[in-house]
User: Fold these one by one.
Assistant:
Number 1:
Amino acid sequence: MSGTALDPKTAPLFPIAAKIAMGDAQMRKNVRHATDVIQTKRARVVAEMPDWQQLREAGRQIRQHTMENLDFYLEEFERNCTRAGGVVHWARDAEEARRIVVELAKASGSDEVIKIKSMTTEEIQLNQALEAAGVHAVETDLAELIIQLGEDRPSHIVVPALHKNRQEIREIFQRKMNLPELGDRPDDLADAARMYLREKFLRVKTGVSGANFLIAETGGVCIVESEGNGRMCLTLPETLITLAGIDKVVPRYQDLEVLLQLLPRSATGERMNPYNSIWTGVDVKDGPRTFHVVLMDNARTEILADEESRQTLNCIRCAACQNACPVYRQTGGHAYGSVYAGPIGAILTPQLQEMHYAQSLPYASSLCGACYEVCPVKINIPEVLIHLRNKVVKQNTAGVAGLFDVEATAMKAMAMIFRSEKRFRAAQRLGRIAESPLTGKDGWIGWLPGMLGGWTQARDLKEMPKETFRDWWEKRGKNGN
Amino acid sequence: MATETVANSARTEILRRIRAAKGGDSSAASAEAGWAAIERKYKRVSSRSREDVLELLEERLRDYDAQVMRVRLDDIATTVARMMSERGVQRVVVPAGLKMEWLPSGFEFVFYSEDADRRNGDSGGDALTAAELDGMDGVMTGATVAIAETGTVVLQNTAGQGRRAVTLVPDYHLCVVQVKDVVETVPEAMERLKGSATLATTFVSGPSATADIEMTRIKGVHGPRFLDVILAG
């Protein structure tokens, strides 16, 4: 299974992966259907809220304020969580986080853990690390279970199996749960998952989760979910291990009044998701007796250090941008080579890789702005995309490499041409002569040779007009005729 | 400091990175001032009449597949009997502290006390293991707050609501909400919950559900598949 994990370090470039994904007609149909349904639901429940824009603005300000005071709020969370009986750990990177969670899971005495869907654990490929240490992780969210049993990979932040339809899911369950008679109605499939997991919920003594919000003021943790599998993992085991990015902290309990309105409506198009759990440390009469929180950096401080892209950290993982994105809706999630796909993935993934990998992702966008419009905390994703493109170019042309960079050389040549009227006129004449054999009868150019081919790979080019504006202007005569 | 552990050094390093990234420390005073300056122009108080708020709660609960009955306080027990009969429910777990006058005769109520709590595999005590809860037909509780706008009942680990597993494992949940505990908006609910923020808290909005298969909403995966609400007062 580890061989199929989405890893930006080994993933192919986005255009190559996207081209392959575009050939999978069934997957594209499934993604289109699912994202259409969520978008319609979201639009309906957002329209119910006359104060939606005010909520978004408050959400943006809360998140921005948190990042500006992140050290203070993390320390406050640690203090309050510890006082309430929780144990707080810190992890600089994915490797350290995996090591801590694996050690805690083994120390709890279990060779099996039940898991709540968590993108952060996907980000660090925790299941593979647990597996390698002899601890089997059982995914309990329906979609994650489909992914795990199907030896597949998540393709969406909120609905990770949305690329699969009911027939495909039935086939996986029939095979893996040994239910040859299973039907393909969604109710049948959900029932099968209920039966399959109930025994594990009642038996397994260690739970692993992510977190939606860490509340600095109280030391509490909040998780939102739909199925009740989360509540099972949070309340029935004896040990609970929660892994959270340092960006998940919120200042005060009251701030949930904003975030718990924005998140469900944006994520699943519900006024409130069926279950929100909030717990604080350990309560001897309710839930696990041992509670660990692992606060993980894993390049989040790198993002914090870049003022122009810091807003990336404001994300609350609702995936509304994925559903709205014309690129994601065509390619699905796997083409992004990361568990974070779509517009947010295009800015988050390369930054989590400190711009060493996934450099093609900031280009996986038409900059149409649909993502910005639906973002519940107003992250200006197009702005960050452009900033990151700039970073990629600068990085790749720094030092000696820049001297041999074709794009940079071409840009310099363009600058030289634009500086002189004579050179500009000559270039236009030359262009018209050069393009004539390439121009189709309809006046469009569909193919350009060599380096220029990059332009026509994804779009056609109109032929140059027979007469330039300058030529026309000069021919008009003095009185404007 | 020479004996600083690996764990401590991760903490020190992350906090150092954060401060370097922002160009300085944050203090309680700067956090306090910054937080107070956050613009909160969204709706924070009710704009509807009391009757409209209650009607909205009923409508929103029904919209997410819960059954709702609106009754006078005196009629709770008879309504409980009616709803449980309709659901074919007989053995019901009840957290200690629920009002006795809400319980009708003719059903088996299994009282559960927080103080006698015991876990899977332990023995003794009057409480219920998860496996025993799994054998119950249902659970009946009160609620701390209900939010009309979102169709939500909020449960906390207090008298008459019990620990979280009690309202999770049985397949049927009957929740009695008193009219005085109903608010219109999420901010009003958070304001009421603020004083007991550290209690284990669960927001329940309709029965357990999923939309993971082709975005079709399916009622009931792991939590109770059936939710009935009695709105009383």
Note: Chain A touches chain B through 102 residues (CB under 8 Å).
Number 2:
Amino acid sequence: MAKKVIEALGIGKSFHDPITVKVLTDVSFSINAGEFVSIVGKSGCGKSTLLYILSTMDTSYEGELFLDGITMKDKKDGELARVRNEKIGFVFQFHYLLNEFNNLQNVMLPGLKFGKFTANEIEHNAYEKLKVLGIEKEAMKYPNQLSGGQKQRVAIARALINEPLIIMGDEPTGNLDKKNSDVVFNIFKELAEEYHQSLLIVTHDLDFAANTQRTITMEDGKIIGTDLP
Amino acid sequence: MKIKLTTQISLALLIARRRQTMVAAFGVTFSITMFITLLSFMAGLNDLLDNLILNRTPHVRLYNEILPSSIQPIARSTTYLDAYHFVRHVKPKNELLEIRNSEAIIKALKNDPNVRGIAPKNTVSIFYNVGAINLTGVINGIDVDAENRLFTFQNYVVQGETIDLKNTPNSIILGIGAARKMLAQIGDNIQITTSDGTRFPLKVVGFFQSGIEEIDKVQSYAALTTTQKILVKPASYITDIQIKLYDMTLAPILAKRYSMLFETEAIDIQTANAQFETGSSIRTLISYAVGITLLIVAGFGIYNILNMMIYEKMDSIAILKATGFSGRDLNAIFITIALTIGLVGGALGLIFGLGLSAVIGEIPFNTASLPTVETYPINYDLKFYLIGAAFSIITTYLAGYFPSKKASRIDPVDIIRGK
């Protein structure tokens, strides 16, 4: 059996303001190394909430979360930040690149924070990542000089820089047109197939989901089904 | 987190908001400049005013005063030990103001390691004869060399040379106020009358201006030997022994000790001139208050700009947190921004402060009462620069503290989900 990179056991979450609303109920699933998984569901079904719990950014939940076999319960803010830095790569709907830095520096930032390699090595790695994503020509430009699709690719390169255990995406193609969506999807697919990168993507784009290895469908805060293509 | 990365991110954010950064730094620069200038000028002025008196005031002065006996006979009676004594009939003795055994005292003081120098002095009350009228006056008999060395006497002699007092027999340096009334010129002979009616001619060799008009109208200086001659006293006749110490703060203790030891009255500079200390300290207090107020205002400017920056950079803060920067890292980034503004603004402020005080120090400042002063007085004390530097860092740190705390507490989920 393959190694589990993420395992959720009975995750539940409620919002208490102004009245208690249960948004997630007893969500349990796991993702194996190298798997390309998507979560689909209608707006408000709790899929994004689940993703933020899995990403360790949201810490108020019930149940247990294991990343790489280690529980995330009772970890301090600083420790969780390190887990995010070293083990998780993020791609959001919006690119969130820092306009003060050029694209190469944007990709390098999490690597510099990690501090495992020297600045020169990180620069080299970052350039390699951009090359894989086909935007090495834009390395010295600034984010506001790029198109939406290119920015999203820089954001993916940034997510890859620390060789994360898993890449998490929250509607990564939500802001893109069909052509760019396909480009981004193909990148994810390539990462999964050629580099055996684990991916967990939240989307409401059913075409996108249909092409992933496994689709988890959610409704009203519960998993209602898992489809293998 | 590595300091290099923190500074790199901080500088990028600073440069992105170049104009606001400059305004904030300028606020600090301005306040530090004014702080330094204000304090240097105020301290210079304080020194000037204090020196007017303090330079010419001995740290300890030994003298005799006509006093009643401190123990009245009834106090010696055992019968009335617990009673209130109101019978005080023993009046002051007819004593001389002379310090007895002055030569031995001077010799003892010269061997005292606390003493920097001694200037013996005697004072004669006289009348200046001007035609038909007499003006009251005082002649101080001084040791010219000691007086020059310890009390910068030569600085106050506006015409003539102090050395002439020693070299010309029966000479006098007249107070400028008295000289004007007497229409005296250098080289003139004037007449004085002592309190017992003796007339005495003296040759004017110089004019003296203290800056305090009341003194200049009355006081004059002559050599010790001249005054002894006027009074018909021996060479040991001295009424005052002026002592300068190495450490002025020891004056009150030493005054008490000398008083006991030499059986004379002794007064220390702190007691004699308490009002100058008070004036100086209040002026200093006011300058500090104004300077620190300026800095606090500059601090609010920095606070504002950091707050704006945090609102503007919410997205950047969120993604930095999402990619593994902890709250502490973000705190460090924004504190670095605040401190950079403080350091750059503060350093410029110190330089401009030095420049502005130097400019003020060149402005001519002539006043009749201050003969030795030609430009505005400035005190270039390193202390002010250290305080200025410390305060610029402390205020900017405090100004950065709360916004940084806020940045470190931002929940990235709120920002990212809000899109």
Note: The mean pLDDT of chain B is 85.
